[in-house]
Amino acid sequence: MPLARPHIEPRRVPTADSVVVKEIYLSVQGESSHAGLLCSFVRLTGCHLRCTYCDSEFAFHGGARRQNADVVAEVKALGAQRVEVTGGEPLLQPGVYPLMEALLAEGMTVLLETSGAIDVRLVPPAVHKIVDMKTPSSGESDRNDYRNLQSMNANDELKFVIGGREDYEWSKRLIAEHRLLDKPYELLFSTVHGKLTPKDLAEWVIADRLPVRFQLQMHKYIWHPDERGV
Question: What is the C-alpha separation between 191 and 168, in angstroms, rounded?
Fold first, then answer.
């Protein structure tokens, strides 16, 4: 029997004052309950997962180390009240925690897009955490850190990216087994773009009367997937 791979633990380094940034840009939020709203994005470099449907492989490497203060200044200059910290996997970088605190201190609404493979308990409670629960078709479902189901609060959203019927049934079982409908956070269902039609997923949700938020990644319908900074 293969040995289980250990979960990555979050690290908090008080002196961390910088992060490696792949890109910073202004766009509209493409998913979650914030979809359609003007949003700045801070994409950090690096990820320890290799999901089969990853749409941000370009963020695995490269970028430049930036002082948190400079990142905050650039985000403020973009002019949006809302900002998302994403990746890659942003929680791999110790500097992301003080960065999020600094963005909150500027009065911004701060979103965090994270893989679900790192416990989010050290993330500032005011941050809106969007935690991606990896389904079987991702190839990384054994990396899910189930402590997240207890670490999340009412600001947060648990996302299931569905690539087929197996993923859908797996997600339903997980929701039932962990009584996720009783949790304070919202549940999101979306499709693997180009693999499962939104119509199929919507019809499954309707047939099962499943009280989740069905969503589309609207940015993928607006811009070409290879376009950067959108």
Answer: 10
